[in-house]
Write a structure and sequence with these properties.
Blueprint (H helix, E strand, L loop, with lengths): L1 H26 L3 E6 L3 H14 L3 E7 H7 L7 E7 L1 H10 L9 E7 L5 E6 L1 H7 L6 H19 L4
Antiparallel strand pairs: 1-5, 2-3, 3-4, 4-5
């Protein structure tokens, strides 16, 4: 029994370490990357579900693997969802119009070569910094908190 618990603890530790290393490696490029307990489709289904419940508009969902197949190419499951809330995005664009190139927001879910599924999105801090937006800290903080909650719901196994 103790050996089983130690093995489970070690596996949990390895997953946590992988998550931290991946998150830290992507911190500099403005990406939050989270492992998902679900398939690509289910991860984005869950993300879409929680966002719609919270009044976030879903503009489009793009299945890149289907697009690749239509061109006679193969691509592991890869989907992008484009979403936003004008009450939060508009103040960023009012501050600096070039931020519209990064808005509405996007999230990508993909399956890697080992079958692991990931969810990633640009941080609002990264977007604000990229466009020199210094007068919307409260909006950026609100967006950051919401994205963290939404992405946790989409990726973490129900308990």
């Amino acid at each position: 029994m103790k050996l089983l618990k130690a093995g489970k603890l070690m596996k949990t530790g390895i997953v946590l370490l992988l998550f931290l290393v991946t998150t830290m490696a992507n911190a500099g490029n403005g990406l939050v990357v989270k492992p998902s307990a679900y398939s690509v489709a289910e991860t984005l289904d869950r993300l879409e579900q929680i966002m719609k419940k919270k009044g976030i508009s879903i503009f489009i969902r793009i299945n890149h693997a289907q697009g690749a197949a239509s061109a006679g190419l193969t691509l592991a499951p890869t989907e992008v969802i484009i979403f936003g809330n004008p009450k939060l995005g508009t103040p960023l664009m009012q501050s600096q119009r070039t931020s519209a190139i990064d808005l509405p927001l996007k999230a990508i879910a993909w399956q890697d070569e080992e079958g692991k599924v990931w969810l990633a999105y640009n941080t609002p801090d990264y977007i604000a910094g990229r466009h020199g937006i210094n007068d919307q800290q409260a909006t950026v903080k609100k967006m950051t908190g919401a994205l963290n909650k939404f992405s946790d719901f989409a990726t973490k196994a129900a308990q």
